[in-house]
What does this fold into?
Amino acid sequence: MTAQAATVRAAAPASCIDGLRDSRARSSVDGDEIAWEDESRFDDARRHAHRAWTRNGLHRVKFPADDASRIADLEWSDVNTARAPWKNILGRWKGMPGTDAVQLNRAYLGTGKAYGDTRSRRMIAAHELGHALGFCHKNPSAYRSLLAPNTFDMPSNGRPTPRDRKNYHALWG
It folds into this structure.
């Protein structure tokens, strides 16, 4: 394999559990930013997620708060239900026409709930922001990732792993 072929292979978007690949097209990124607004009780978790995806060499995508000069690309909000379709769902990113959404579920993340601690909330918020960046669920038997589909397979510090950072650079440069 030539050095050029190795470089191209290293830069290819990472594969997903569902057979797709990480994709800029399935992200909330507008240009080089995700302008956000929030109505979440879990603002600490949102701040952690923003920090997690902008440190250790991850600087391509910015996360400015929505203001008069821009339109929000992502809205952070809460739901509070354990009924379908939210049964056993801690958080969700949803791409939508216009503003995309990250929703955190107070039924599981609220104080006194099964995942109602700071560490769990931060981990879920960073995971969902990873989806907003265009990343899909990764196979935990292939490598450790913040984008693993289950919390017990994610890094407990709620930060992208070295492989997540490699995937970020493959997708965003």
Notes: The radius of gyration is 16 Å. The first strand starts at residue 36 and ends at 39.
